[in-house]
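Handout, section 4.2: multi-component inputs.
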Amino acid sequence: MTRNRKMMIAVAAVLFYVVGVPWLCAGRNYYLGVVTTASVLAVICAGVWLIFYIGRINIGQGAFALAGGYAAAIAVSKWGLSFWIAMPFAGLASMAIGILIGLPLLRLKGVYFSMITLSLTETARLAAQSLKSITNGPNGILNIPLPRDLSIFGITVIPDFATVDKHLALFYLGAVLLVVTYAALYRIVNSRLGWLFRSLQQNEDLASSFGVNVPMLRVIAFAICTFLAGVGGAFFVAMQQSIYPATFAVQDSTYFMLYCFIGGLSFVFGPLIGTFILYMGFEVLQGFKEYQPLLYALLMIGVMLWLPNGLLSLRPPKFLSAKMPSRPASGGDV
Amino acid sequence: MTFMSGHGGSMFARRFHAEGENYICFHVLISRKQFFFGGREKIGMGQVLINGMYSGVQYSLIALGLTLIFSLMNVMNFAHGQLYVLGGFVTYYVYGVLGLPFPAALLGAAATLAVVGVLFDVLLFRRVLARSARDESTMLLACGSALLLDSLFIIFFGEKQRGVPPVVGGVLRIGEGIFLPYGRVLIVVLSVVLIVAFILFMAHTRWGRGLRAMAQDRDAARLMGVNVARYSMLGWMIASVLAGLAGAMLVSVSGVNSGIGTWISIKAFIMVMIGGAGAIPGAIIGGLVLGMLESLGAQYMSGSQYLAIFVALIVFLAIRPRGLLGRQ
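Output:
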């Protein structure tokens, strides 16, 4: 497929998303909210996917989203900062934690990293509960103001969310995050850095013998991953205007993995598709909500047993697949 | 919780509150008794150490199973804590609801968990292991199984905290301000017996030798005539039974609820990381260390002890990546 057609498809998809979806959901704020939530969950998932891409498993994305959420909530409601400063701050705060943990741990065998990230989700929740002076304990931080307007040189770039349709404004914020994240991810995967990441996934020893700084690259990938989690967490703070220690739990971290997994681990847009299909699918099947964890678990086990490369592996459409060296489809080469 | 209600969040939020109470009572249990006898601040160093020993011995039992599976199959079983919870629930029904004697409940838990362990191996892990050379896929499978068991627990057992009447009553008093409830003593003795039996089994029986051979080198063991398929089944069975028995015994002290599985798994990971993955003495040391740290933490930095333990663990792993006794 030529570059032009790829561009056209991408532009058409983005146009449908930013024009078509609000038009279809006009007056139905609930559905618009579902799409918004799915978009930002997909942003958080993109980080998990990137870690899969270097051959590691991050089961603690919920912890970083929680950290980012709290960072944003504290910046907005205690320090009185603008949300537009708080959101990047949340990403950076979460990234700082990620780098602190990643520097020692990403040198170890993969299983240690996974165990630590899983433990981190619970630790983050307990920390949020017990550090009452900072996080307000189990009661959470409530009544966080909506994002205010952003003006540069007197020109209002972003209007105050309280003065416009809140749902639509949040949708467009989510849409911008989604498009920017996946465009950046696509760019990363198709750059020199992407080739280096793939070399980690395939054979770390070989890569390091060619002079690839393996631990440093892992930390870079993890920094990107945790930044996305922090920004996503900050977005949900703006959307829900509150945050609790249980806002992101171990279940959420596991779901993020599942979303990536269903979409397929070798495709940049896999986590996006996985999130939208699974999250929105369950919004449609309201009656099954009670059994959501059970169905997710069965799906996850089923995929592991029968479809280890995800939905898109059934017949990967070329325009969706990243430049991926052909790999044997056997086993769970994730 | 608007967005999380569509995300499994609100349900789990409620559950985690119940869970929070549970693991607080895990080690505060003794101090609460102290409270009735005259104030929490009176709890002495002796009692703190004893509490640490209590939990430590229990924890060792949990970590042993996890490290066994890891050394045999290179699988980190993220569903280990859920097996513990299952043992707790079996005991709750056999001993607490049906009113059968406690040993019968232990046997019931052991039998159930043996079956579940074999099913885990035959239905899930064996199939995935046969097709993949990397450990990521089994980790994901284990996460999926943990989620599956968690949701089944919620559906079948509900979210309530379940407890059973104490197995034996009475409190042993040693010197000034050290209290040993007999129920706890019984559990510690049983756990030590189980740990010793496990070590003797691994060291001196034919099956134990087979398992150790497999842990050292799977292919070489196969060439020497070890039936690897059958021995992995045995390994899964033993590991699950150990976790289940730990749960079965602890239900008489701290109760059980559907939500604690992940938390127990996390504790087991911490122990394995302290002691070193794949080393049996490492699991025991890791369990004792974590028990002590928790007990000391609950005394001196109540509330944020897990954050402190976690930070200490990261620093420790940076200095000693393989834990105290880990293998290459």
